[in-house]
Amino acid sequence: MFPERTQLVLDLVGVFFFAVTGALLAARKGFDIVASTLLAGLTGLGGGVVRDVIINVRPAVFEHPVYLVPVVLGVAVVYLYYPHVPRFRRTLLLVDAAGLGLFCVTGTVKALAADVPAVSAVLLGVTSAVGGGLLRDVVAREVPSLFRYDDIYALPAVVGATVTALLWRLDALSVWTGVGASVLTFALRALAVRYGWRAPLAYRRQPPDG
Amino acid sequence: MFPERTQLVLDLVGVFFFAVTGALLAARKGFDIVASTLLAGLTGLGGGVVRDVIINVRPAVFEHPVYLVPVVLGVAVVYLYYPHVPRFRRTLLLVDAAGLGLFCVTGTVKALAADVPAVSAVLLGVTSAVGGGLLRDVVAREVPSLFRYDDIYALPAVVGATVTALLWRLDALSVWTGVGASVLTFALRALAVRYGWRAPLAYRRQPPDG
Amino acid sequence: MFPERTQLVLDLVGVFFFAVTGALLAARKGFDIVASTLLAGLTGLGGGVVRDVIINVRPAVFEHPVYLVPVVLGVAVVYLYYPHVPRFRRTLLLVDAAGLGLFCVTGTVKALAADVPAVSAVLLGVTSAVGGGLLRDVVAREVPSLFRYDDIYALPAVVGATVTALLWRLDALSVWTGVGASVLTFALRALAVRYGWRAPLAYRRQPPDG
What is the distance of C-alpha A113 from the center of its chain? Predict the structure, then answer.
């Protein structure tokens, strides 16, 4: 649906962004560099592996070892510059938001290319986008950022994946509109962080005698 | 093995029951409604997805988006009626037991239909039944209810899956005997809760000089 | 690549070693014997299942229920002898190291046999070796031993898997050289425990004005 090279580039950039967030968490937790690599790989590649296993495609990283390059780069960046990074918490959230924006679009596209119905493709796009971070947090014993009440995280990915599937239905999905959906997702997530946008709680508050 | 429509109905009802338990946990933890939906989906669909990925079948939810309906319904029920639900802790345990009973039978049937040996089909039936709840608890950072020592949880599912595989071996598996195995599982789990049935510990207590 | 029977024996021995570590954790946490069986199975079989799902092979345990035998044996050993085992913490670490050594070699061999590129086969070998223990720790809410800073754990498996892939590239992979790679991995891990070998941290310490 995208030219192969475009898909690859977008993928690798997304892997790099998420790998950085995994390596940063490893650094914060005092893990060693091997654990940092594992956590960066799980974050950068985990969501895509889950998606590919579900649609029964051999996960890209196990066909094309080039996917390991952005993981190693992410670990190296954190290894070299860690003490400077935490000063830029907002930068980090933006890096993560960039990964989210890229993966919800490329994940949906890959699912559509595997002949999954559009609604399920949206679900798989969101899985690609939030899966790696969820695995990262679960394995490192953090409260999944997905579930924190501070600001919406999954919803921008749902929007991005839905827009991608709609563009595809309307035969309007191209590299440019795809990148547009990524930027939209990124922007929604960035605004959610900036203004503390929240979703309603899981239950409607009611008076006890309601 | 079951008529397709019967299998679908049993599945959807099981998904609904487990989705409710996921949404309830989200409500208790103060997650928002998006997280509630994710957790309900993981609980209701996770065990089946793991089973299908193992037997190399595309998971039902990614072929038939109708599987998302009971998830949304479960989230909605909790959203609307949450404050009333915790008063009925026993009701909740029974809802979960109903999901357990349905999934250990339908999961075993699906595995047998994929030509898995009977012993492995039992294992996959149990995986379907307890997998979603395990994922729910791991992701939400709870002690897996599977491991709590209060009352047996997995064992009724093992019994239900074994009975299902035996019925199949004896060519006696029908909708009615299948539902019977479900009800048996449900009853065993309900009695375990009611009377605090426990399994032996993981080790035999011995005197220190034993 | 290995004769089938050899592969099976090495596999079953590895499953037994890891199953023992899972059952021991269950005993320490006061879980019941059902949870012990589940945790032993997850530890012994989880890494291989993840590998097989990724390379799109039906996991061995779901074809050959004989894989459940070492799990049951591991649970039985811990059930019968638990109070004696903790005195031998070093013995336990060695048992785990033996599993690590076996699985990083057999996992790499299975991935190579599925036509995965060599670099990815190394990754899958490491996944087989450390995956079960990671699942065990995550599900039982322990800090993954993989991430503890005490002594290197994954690195010996990386070495063993890399040596296996190199032997295969040089057409020198046989049962004997394979067992040699296993022993090397085991020895590296055992020495790491004995002498507290550590990897560098995830970040280079820098002066604040660095």
Answer: 19
Instruction: Return the closest-CA partner of residue B54 out of C46, A111, A60.
Output: C46
Mean pLDDT of B35-64: 92
| Chain A contact set for C149 (CB, 8 A) | 30-32
- Which is it for the CA torsion C130, C132, C133, C136, positive or negative? positive
Cβ–Cβ under 8 Å, residues B145 and B192: no
- Please state, rounded to an integer, the average pLDDT across all residues of chain C: 89
Q: What angle, rounded to 10 degrees, do the helices at A33-54 and C154-169 form?
A: 60
Please count the residues of chain A. Answer: 210
pLDDT grade for B207, boundaries at 50, 70 and 90: very low
CB B74 within 8 A of CB B19: yes
Mean pLDDT, range C36-44, rounded to an integer: 95
Determine what percent of chain A falls in helix, strand and coil, rounding each to the nearest 5: 75, 0, 20
CA distances to A163, A172, A180, C51 from A167, in Å = 6, 5, 11, 35
What is the longest distance spanned by two Cα atoms in chain A?
61
The alpha carbon of residue C186 is apart from the nearest alpha carbon of chain A, in Å, by: 18
Chains with 3 or more CB pairs under 8 A to chain C: A, B
Beta carbons within 8 Å of A193's beta carbon, 6+ residues apart:
A90, A93, A94, A97, A151
Nearest to B135 by CA among C63, C57, A127, C44: A127
In chain C, residues with a C-beta closer than 8 Å to the C-beta of A40 are: none
Query: Token pair for residue C66?
Result: 């004989």
Question: Are the beta carbons of A200 and B138 separated by less than 8 Å?
Answer: no
DSSP three-state, residue C32: strand
Question: Which letter, b or e, does each residue of A16-29 get, where b requires 16 or more Cβ atoms within 10 Å of its Cβ?
Answer: bbbbbbbbbbbbbb
Would you state the pLDDT for residue A143? 83
Neighbours of chain A (3+ CB pairs under 8 A): B, C
- The answer to whether C135 faces chain A, any CB pair under 8 Å, is no
What average pLDDT does range A119-144 have in this prediction?
92
The torsion region of residue C61 among left (phi > 0), alpha (psi -120 to 50) and beta comes to: alpha
Residue C111 to chain A, least CA–CA distance (Å): 10
Please give the Cα distance from A134 to A144 (Å, whole number): 6
Distance (Å, rounded) from C-alpha A25 to C-alpha A36? 8
User: Which among C74, C73, C71, C98 is positioned nearest to C160, based on CA atoms?
Assistant: C98
Is B80 at the interface with chain A, CB within 8 A? yes
A35 and C120: CB-CB below 8 Å?
no
Does C202 sit within 8 Å of A75, measured CB to CB?
yes
